[in-house]
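pipeline/complex-builder :: batch 7 item 3
reading input block
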Amino acid sequence: DIQMTQSPSTLSASVGDRVAITCRASESINTWLAWFQQKPGKAPKLLIYKASSLESGVPSRFSGSGSGTEFTLTISSLQPDDFATYFCQQYNSSPWTFGQGTKVEIK
Amino acid sequence: QLQLQESGPGLVKPSETLSLTCTVSGASISNSNYYWGWIRQPPGKGLEWLGNVYYSGSTRYNPSLKSRVTISVDTSNDQFSLKLSSVTAADTGVYYCARSYTGNSKWFDPWGQGTLVTVSS
């Protein structure tokens, strides 16, 4: 199985900050990576697919980059609605696997 | 707008079979472009993909659970179901159903709200 490792596990930031979350794969997954946002008690929401493609309706302050084994989700200017948990998913090879999640907290 | 909703018992006894159903609305489960999947999240842990089903009934399972998981589809009612046998406390968690795609677009979107299943006597 491909292991997905996210860092940091928790991130404390303020409104307006630029934040970056990293997802590393245990082997190359090309650009077959998605990013999701999850709030407590809610369904995960797709933000980014194919490593850098922004899902329709997602604010442009979210961006994704990377290929191979290292990927980054960047929020250019953190907004109050962005405090949530973020996780990645690789879909290069089955079984599809997820990162452990990064919780973005208010500093 | 496609929506998915999980349903089923919230409490299952150890050694018994966990059974959940996902009802799809806003799109046909028989669309040949889609797979339908189950994912779970134990308390305080990450997400684990359990398996997918195609409208034809063909399935793909996570090898870590393959011997205990069965996923089936009911196209007449736009539903698909999960059965997980011989459950233990380690199977406690929130269970989500979600849509995936054929081809290279195998991310999950959208997801259901999730349903908490507790394994306890």
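note: The interface with chain A takes residues 39, 45-49, 60, 62-64, 96, 104-114 of chain B (CB under 8 Å).
queue -> next item
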